[in-house]
Design brief:
CATH superfamily of the largest domain: NAD(P)-binding Rossmann-like Domain
Strand order of the largest sheet: 3-2-4-5-6-7-8-1-15-14-13-12-9-10-11
CATH class of the largest domain: Alpha Beta
Radius of gyration: 24 Å
Largest sheet: 15 strands, mixed
Structural class: alpha/beta
Distance between the termini: 25 Å
CATH architecture of the largest domain: 3-Layer(aba) Sandwich
Number of domains: 2
Order of helices and strands: EEHEEHEHEHEEEHEHHEHEHEHHEHHE
Shape: globular
Strand content: 15-25%
CATH topology of the largest domain: Rossmann fold
Number of strands: 15
Length: 481
């Protein structure tokens, strides 16, 4: 079987650097969340003969009166909760498209080079939205521009922004020096397994904290780590380690387990309640999966414990990490593998859906880092998704949340110069959330699934022996557009 392809996402300078605006839009609207910069952008555009309006009511019902051809969204240039900011951007984008707008430019400030900025990446998910919108709204031009805002030179910032706008790239950055760079996937990396296997004693023993680590592909990746490092492992998950029903034969098929549970209830003279049967089946399977994961880690020769914890709840996270410190020692490494999906098209996406996705991926990471005192760790691994790099129909919120993980990883790597920090933009796995229907969907698009054993080994190799400069990794077959 061929090795799973892995590439580092990299910046590069486009071959041409236009100095004047070349877009065809004759009228532009700018959202007013960053009023001083909006005024500077408007002034620079008017100097180029463009009709400009600054608006703060686009996403309101009156937004339909905005008749500009192009919209520049400044929401993410300020402060705020990641979920609220990204939802507001989506609201603006939908309202403008409904009003007949044909070109959207989404601004964020992650340093102009996608590696930092004032929000340290937490407001940096707009490339994921732009890429998904490009798939769902092919009649609309949607771009993300990372502009480094200089509060002492807003006029200069606006001029630099126009240079980036004039480029043809859907995702592009411009830093304070005026340097314009786009992003791309680099050449396939030589995997560590093609050189040599990491030594069992490397890295030094410590405590690895793993969110979502007792189930699915995260559990497989944790097991691969355990085979190569003598660390202790603390696994976090929302599920309880529920005991298996003593009078029910073991199975990993939820439909069969539901049938057996319903049969038991009927035999006892009870009327099976489908919702109760489904709940009991899911709890039993989750408990079995947790015990299996712990058993595999123990078989690998490491110490491992499971801590029920909803990482969306800051108090629960702080309490769990306090217990881990008491029972296992200081946490030295973190793997954030938890995540959920709630798919629907951008035009139908609800705030509740976006919050559900963001609360686990983004809010969960915020809670974990805060409970760890934002102190440098020896290793940090974030489970992002190829949907962030390519976009994916129905997954605009998921693409944004995972793109935030990418931007936060880049920011932390700059802050923690001695640490191994990596964000894995995983393609679809041959397991987990990819059911037979999704598997057929990917097959039709020519996207091969990542075998669990091979993907887990790749993860461990990259964390223990990978190039420290390869922070943002795209894993799996290229996605067809």
């Amino acid at each position: 079987m061929p090795a799973v392809e892995i590439r580092a996402v990299e910046l590069y300078e486009p071959p041409e650097r236009p100095t004047a605006r070349t877009a065809a839009a004759a009228s532009v609207a700018i959202t007013a969340e960053h009023p001083l910069l909006a005024a500077s952008i408007a002034s620079a555009l008017r100097a180029n003969g463009v009709e400009v309006q600054v608006t703060d009511a686009l996403a309101a019902p009156s937004g339909a009166s905005v008749t500009a051809e192009e919209l520049v969204v400044t929401v993410a240039l300020g402060d705020g909760d990641p979920g609220e900011v990204h939802w507001r951007v989506l609201e603006h984008a939908r309202a403008f498209r409904t009003a007949g707008g044909r070109s959207l430019i989404l601004l964020q400030d992650t340093g102009g080079n996608f590696t930092g900025g004032p929000s340290r990446g937490w407001l940096g998910g707009l490339a994921g939205l732009a890429r998904t919108a490009a798939l769902e709204w092919p009649e609309t031009s949607v771009r993300c521009i990372d502009v480094a805002v200089d509060a002492d030179d807003l006029a200069g910032t606006a001029r630099r922004l126009l240079t980036a706008i004039a480029s043809a790239h859907p995702v592009v950055g411009v830093d304070r020096s005026g340097r314009v760079r786009a992003v791309r996937a680099g050449e396939p990396l030589v995997q560590p397994s093609q050189r040599s296997r990491p030594a069992r004693s490397s890295p030094q023993p410590g405590v690895w904290l793993v969110s979502g680590g007792a189930r699915g592909v995260t559990a497989a990746c944790t097991e691969a780590l355990a085979r190569w490092t003598p660390a202790r492992f603390a696994l976090l998950g929302r599920s309880r380690a529920t005991d298996w029903p003593s009078d029910i034969a073991s199975t990993d098929d939820i439909r069969e387990l539901r049938r057996r549970l319903a049969g038991r209830a009927s035999a006892a003279g009870e009327r099976p309640v489908p919702s109760d049967i489904d709940r009991d089946a899911r709890q039993a399977l989750a408990g079995q999966e947790i015990r299996d994961a712990l058993g595999k880690l123990e078989a690998a020769g490491v110490s491992a414990r499971y801590y029920p914890c909803d990482i969306r709840d800051r108090e629960q996270v702080h309490g769990a990490i306090a217990r881990i410190r008491d029972e296992l020692g200081q946490v030295t490494a973190l793997v954030h593998g938890a995540g959920v999906l709630d798919d629907s098209l951008l035009v139908d996406k609800t705030r509740a859906q976006l919050d559900r996705v963001f609360d686990t991926k983004v809010g969960g990471l915020q809670n974990l880092l805060a409970a760890l005192d934002d102190a440098p760790l020896s290793h940090l691994a974030l489970f992002s998704s190829a949907a962030a790099f390519h976009g994916n129909v129905g997954q605009g919120d998921y693409a944004m949340a995972n793109e935030i993980l990418n931007r936060v990883a880049q920011s932390l790597q700059r802050r923690w110069s001695g640490s191994v920090v990596k964000s894995f933009n995983w393609g679809p796995w041959d397991s987990g959330m990819v059911d037979p229907t999704l598997a057929r969907y990917f097959e039709e698009r020519g996207i091969s699934l990542i075998p669990v054993r091979e993907g887990a080994a790749l993860f461990a190799e990259q964390m223990l022996r990978g190039d420290r400069d390869g922070v943002e990794l795209l894993v799996g077959a290229p996605w067809a557009r």
